[in-house]
Specification:
The protein is α+β, with helices and mostly antiparallel strands. The chain contains nine helices and five strands; from the N terminus they run βββαββαααααααα. The chain has three domains: 4-63, OB fold (Dihydrolipoamide Acetyltransferase, E2P) (Beta Barrel), CATH 2.40.50.140; 66-144, DNA polymerase, domain 1 (Orthogonal Bundle), CATH 1.10.150.20; 154-204, Helicase, Ruva Protein, domain 3 (Orthogonal Bundle), CATH 1.10.8. It has helices at 32-36, 66-75, 83-92, 95-103, 107-111, 118-128, 154-165, 170-183, 193-204; strands at 4-13, 16-21, 24-29, 44-53, 58-63.
Amino acid sequence: MIATLSGVVFVKQPNHVIIDVGGVGYEVLISGRTYDRLPDNGDEVFLYIHTSVREDAITLYGFAGAEEKELFLLLNTVSGVGPKLALSILSGISAQELGEALIRKNMSRLTALAGVGRKTAERMCVELKDKVAKYYLPGSEADQIPAGESMEEDSFRDALSALTNLGYTQAMAWQALRRVQKLHPQAAGGMKIEELIREALRALA
């Protein structure tokens, strides 16, 4: 099994990266957060890898940190959460925020994540609450995020839906919305859906 990869970034997209390792290109599926941490094309990169072997395919999933890989594996133990949804979840919420949401059973935050319905959120809370406790430290930054600055607000969820309806993948849409949030950390939470979509489309251009 491939556990890590170290090589050169050949091609990178919001949902996957091709890493050149000694002349062999490995296609690795990634979350939006790992994409944010990738170096430029041609630069050296190191990723933690989970290798999924099935009868019809061998798929590599890559993570910028061991913590994200561990969460990915934990999410996959929940009924109804497969690799694709696990990556989507990790694209939309940090480890610290996820731990907080699961421990506090914050349904509004969890169901705002792309692809997560209430039943899935409830199963995640029941099955992972104790396992993610180490990711949640009361009084840390996740407890201090001002209202309106979370990517899980209804406006961001609606903007995500609109962007996917325009033909963009969820990973690309999340990536664009995070860019908007980073560029306008104070104003993003108060933007109307139309403004979010307009700014996101600029980021995608």
